[in-house]
Predict the 3D structure of the following.
Amino acid sequence: MTRRRFFRVELGGPLPDARSLEFETGLVVQISDVSPEINETALPAAEAPGTAAQSALTAGPFAHEQATIRAVADALQSRGSAPAGDLADQIPRGSPCDNEQTERVEGPGHRSDLALLNKENLTKIPVLSSASANEGTVRPGAFVTTRWSLILSGGGSKSKEQETRAALAELCRIYWRPIFAFICRRGYSTQDAEDLTQDFFVVILEGDWLQNADRSRGRFRSLLLKSLKNFLNDAADKIHARKRGGDVSFISWDSWIAEAPSELSMSTQSLNSLPPERLFDVRWAATVVERALRRLREECERKGRWRVFDVLSAYLTVEREDVSCANLATKLRVPQSTVKKLLYHMRQRYRWLLRDEVAQTVENPADIEDELRHLCGALAASSEQAR
Amino acid sequence: MIFYGLTDLLPAITHEPHECLRCDTALRVNNGLCLLCLLQAGLTEDEDSRTESLDTLLSEIE
């Protein structure tokens, strides 16, 4: 069954910079364009349920004072495991979209929801993250707003500070391991490395790091590494200050380190031969890859098919001619033709998830390729150094 | 600080993994998969990798 739902929002004020909005319930609306007035356009053919939150609409000045966003979410998807429900049910109660001005129009095969937002309550839209809107919901190549581009765009604005800091905290939560590994590799004891990692996050998340950082531009990884090096320049003073019980702030990162542990393994020779910068990159690459794999596994699990991931993930990078579909078919108790299809789509999906992870740390989608090449180069060089 | 047996302390990540037959590197992640090969896979962008393709297929398995 194909269903389509319309979601219409009129904004009586400046438009958000974010190109996608995610509501508390997981509803994701992509905004591809803006028209100064409601303008019905021909919609693409309806797609199967589960299709991404597709978007609308006609050309118009993006910064128009009284602009209207008419975002069409086609077969909306929720974040997380919950299936997409009725759009109206997903609009958070008490949100600007759930008010008396909401107009619901029932029609054959669709329902429209119209929410009028004034300038005052526009800022109350419970947007959680524009970045996660990419998660499984957007066309290939449509890495619209990434965490890093969001941070860079909002770093100097007070009004977006909270959103920006949340995005920055999320990136730090994801990428704390390379930082910790770098500090350890610099020769600090485990305890000192923990303390310094903590202190560094305090600087990043609670200080004015972003305002002072040279953001022109650089990727999150390189900017973070540069900042970390600067931070460690007077690390001895910081450690002594801590030991004297001075004024110390804490970032609560227990939950970060309690998350699924990394399964990176490397030879002792590699570990001992790598300079801190290289180890940082290796750790970074492992984080990116492991997150993509985890998301792929979770997608299989949501469908009750963890076994498919368990068996086939080992073949994500294996040449097709080296895969024995007959054996895999026996293991999974499915026809060989299904194994072939599963492998094809799992590889495709993994690639997309991997690029999406990288996309969150670069400003422009065009940088994804370069970032991947840099990390590949770092891994190859690491192996060379270990020989 | 409790590390919950985490593998993130540097000595804990050394397991002397075998070199990958494809790329000759010895960095492994989940299930012994080669880190570099998994990363290189991302250098090829697909025309169509929407989640519903895999989702639909997974749903259709009996």
Observations:
- The radius of gyration of chain A is 23 Å.
- Chain A touches chain B through 74 residues (CB under 8 Å).
